[in-house]
Write a structure and sequence with these properties.
Elements (H helix, E strand, L loop, with lengths): L2 E9 L4 H17 L3 E17 L2 E12 L2 H13 L3 E9 L8 H12 L39
Antiparallel strand pairs: 1-3, 1-4, 2-3
Helix pairs in contact: 1-2
Length: 152
């Protein structure tokens, strides 16, 4: 049977459990057509490059499928009818991947570095208390520079 990668974007206001329920439903559609989902990846709630149907974010899910073409056609039909799906794409691939997708690797790398931890990166360290700023000018005071004339 041929192999496919199917990625769909679900609306941002859905809960993660609802996205999982959608994925299970699509898996059943494939199973009815004698297909299987080899790998299922949830990439999370991510920002979109542009607004789609008033959504600025979407839940990204990728399914790696081993199924005949009619089963994939039925899957696409079901996805197109579902109002919770804002975009989808199916691509035929030569072989099933043996390692996680680039999106999952990227997420793991960010978690290892700590990018998602409140903006603090371990390689930069905490600057701590900077103390008193001394007698430096405050606000709009520019010190010894003469004020610029108003051109009005």
């Amino acid at each position: 049977m041929p192999f496919y990668e199917h990625v769909f974007l679900a609306r941002q206001d859905l809960a993660t459990a609802q996205v999982e329920a959608l994925t299970e439903g699509f898996t059943k559609v494939l199973a009815e057509g004698n297909g299987t989902v080899a790998v299922q990846e949830y990439w999370g709630l991510r920002s979109l490059a542009y607004r789609i149907a008033k959504n600025r974010k979407a839940h990204y899910v990728m399914l790696t499928i081993d199924a005949p073409a009619p089963a994939v056609a039925e899957l696409e039909r079901q996805v197109a009818l579902n109002e919770d799906i804002i975009r989808y794409m199916t691509v035929r691939i030569e072989a099933l991947p043996t390692e996680p997708s680039a999106m999952l690797k990227r997420g793991e790398r960010e978690r290892e570095r700590g990018d998602r931890d409140g903006g603090m990166r371990p390689d930069r360290g905490d600057r701590g208390d900077r103390g008193d700023r001394g007698d430096r000018p405050r606000g709009g005071d520019r010190g010894d520079r003469a004020p610029r004339p108003f051109a009005g």
